[in-house]
Amino acid sequence: MIPSSFEYHAPTSVAEALSLLQQYGDEAKILAGGHSLLPAMKLRLAAPGVLIDINKIAELRGVVINGNVNIGSMTTWATLEHHDGLRSACGVLPEAVAMIGDIQVRNRGTIGGSLAHADPAADTPAVVLALDGQIRAQGPGGERTIAAGDFFTDMLSTALEPTELITAVILPTLGKGEGAAYVKFPHPASGYAIVGVAAYVKMDGGSVSTCRVAVTGAGPKAVRLTDVEQAVLGGADAAAATANAGAGLDILGDIHAGEEYRRAMVAVYAKRALQKAMERASG
Amino acid sequence: MTTITVTVNGKSYTRDVEPRTLLVHFLREHLNLTGTHIGCDTSQCGACVVHIDGKSAKSCTVLAVQADGASVTTIEGLAENGTLHPLQEGFWEKHGLQCGFCTPGMIMSAADLLAQNPNPSEEEIRHGLEGNLCRCTGYENIVRAVRYAAEKMRAEQPA
To answer: What is the ipTM for the molecules in this complex?
Structure first.
């Protein structure tokens, strides 16, 4: 399978990439790791007239840990998975990243590309939501920061403007009293999340003072489970708080897992994620 | 057409390619290096795995233009002066293949795995090869072949 023809550009700076995006508008697609876009192009589900390959923009790669975690959008999964500093600063991210695809996919795929693609079964959206992360984007009007909670707008859709480019993802560093975890029910062949849940808790004097739980894979986009969060803040344990975690959620069933089953699995995986996060916060 | 220069198995090639040319087609059809196979063509099976700047990648999911300036290693680049690479030898000794279709990709993924982890456990080998599918159900012997190569490579590498 071969993609339809396109014009290829490989800018070496963000400014150059942005001017190409402005020049070509809707015709253009950004090529990051390419492990969602190229398969879609080979199947002719996508046929952009212009590809803007941002792999040569060195300034978009790398992880800086300094008060928070600043991840360049073109940082590969493999870099995040094996980053020693990240493991202690924000271990839930490498934990989730290690579950993505396979080694070859993780060698090419990038965090920014994945977030911009907003696949409903991608893993990182749940983690970024649970950690209340931020997505930094640059466009013709300059730079802006988008809260994770505002970023995912619908299936494969985000708050990004067509002329904007994700430059970085900002996550908090987790300290004493904080714990986070990601657990996932992977599709046995593709590895995509049938249901994946990320949980974050902060303990203060034996009780939970902050709680965020987010689910991916179950519905058209990753979302926070606010009822579960409220129950935990009200003193419920993980099992009680998540008993009805799937209720009221917009769930998409398919041949691999029907709607009812996925809804049930949301409760199961939300409980496991929350238990793990609470253990880590207390540990 | 775009002009690219790619180093493949230590030799530099400059060619004009259409931007939509996939790396696997560039290797097989432009350079006649047909050891890299096309299996599923959907980034799942791993028959097309090569190394790009030392890291394993599925060459059916990379454009040839993305390899411009890079160094690519294919299965043809593993043997040195007619001597099989320990992984190739391991697949021979441990009967790590039946039909052989998945073998080039298996070996290239295993080579990346051993570069990162010279002494992998059986579980780590299986996990490291999760991006490669064998339809002859040959995984048992493939794992043995990788262990064989790991031992041999460690023995050759003075500690």
So the answer is: 0.95
